[in-house]
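lol ok so funny story. i was supposed to be doing the assay writeup but got distracted and ended up predicting the structure for this chain instead. priorities right. anyway since i did it might as well share w the group, maybe its usefull for someone
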Amino acid sequence: MFSLSSEAKVGLFVLVALIILGYMSFQVGQHGFSFKRGYLVETVFDNATGLDKDASVQIAGVEVGRVESISLKNGKALVVLRIKPDIQLEKDVSAAIRTHGILGDKYVEITPGTIKTAFIPDGGAIEQVNRPADIDRMLSQFALITEDIRAVTSSLRNVLGGEAGESSIREILTNMRELTRSINTVVARNDDKIADVVENLKSASKEMEGTFIALNQVAQGLKKGEGTLGQLLRDKETGEKLSKTISSLQDVTEKISTGKGTFGKLVNDEETAKNLSDSLAGINRYVNKAEQYRTYLSYHGEYLFDTSNAKSYLDVRIQPNPDKFYLLGVVTDPRGRRTLRDYTTGGVTTRVEEYDKSGFLFNAQIGKRFKDIAIRGGIMESTGGVGLEYFAFNDKLRLSFDAFDFSSDRRAHLKGMAEFQIFKYIYLSGGWDDFISNQGNSSPFAGISIRFEDDDLKYLMTTTPIPK
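and the output, tada:
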């Protein structure tokens, strides 16, 4: 009877095992174990770099399919997805290529839709595609931003640098110091008797009223063209009026020379002069208060890495005193303003989230500062919200946290940012926008700001050379 040795049995067993293992590896490599069944859905990306065949397809972090194939169609990447048969995709879903971590594998992420009455059939297509972040494009944009910063700093250096700029600034400060010293010297007394000066002026007005009436009558006669000056003098009625006018003027002159009445006190009375000096002191107090009023104009731009979009802010900060401020501004957001709209089809009402990209978003806030901490609240990007700020290193570093767009159907919009001053007018910033979003809007960002105070703008506009 034919028999095999132990070595032959072991060799035959290993050979069979290798054949089975090779077959299983081939099947897994071609189709995978879990997704041989399901329906196919197409989508088109501008760039599918790094995405491999059989890559994972996920919804909310849960795997629902695999990449069936990747091919070229009209200069773009046609990606065919095999979706589990028990998963239904709404027609308004969106797809995006994501990465696990920074250096992880690429996968396709599907964001669920909102319309529950229609689904994508087998062989259908996902129309909405979110463009992934392109590192080369991002670096190119950063290079353009760097060139802009270099041009701005060069212009500022030409305006403010050199001996002429330093001389102008020194002359302005010297003039302001001398003017302040002169005003303080003149009005360094109290203002308790301003009311007395006002009363004296009222009395003088009443005393002069009769005189002005007589002069007005004479002027009316001249205006009507009643003869020449000699005829006016020969007219009895007019002569009487002129006589009364001259008499009134003589009375006023005598009162002034003897120190009577308001003008007489102004000329002869030292106490009246003191009242005038006190009045100037009150004016000085209001001038000092006005010097505390500040206005700031700033532009701030942000580049959102995950969405490859940019946001811009133009703000005016009005600060009547050091611990109180108002903030007004406009925002351009490529995503637009979020609104909720109800649609009724067949008696069924569905609420749909829509974005209006045609207009601006607005800021209108009021704030209060307590030493190194400031709080503010009001309208943030056309919705209600609050903000908290912390200042360090003589206000060169600012940490801020904003919370707004509180809605029951989505998570609140939370934003954290750090901003640091690198030059007098230039600030760099970075942070994370909408970092708890459940709508796929979360994204880190980097930004740059240019900020001027009202005095800076006046100086720049008066010293910047105008090309001829």
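Residues 29-35 have pLDDT under 50 and may be disordered. The chain has four domains: 31-132, 134-181, 187-291, 292-463.
back to the writeup now i swear
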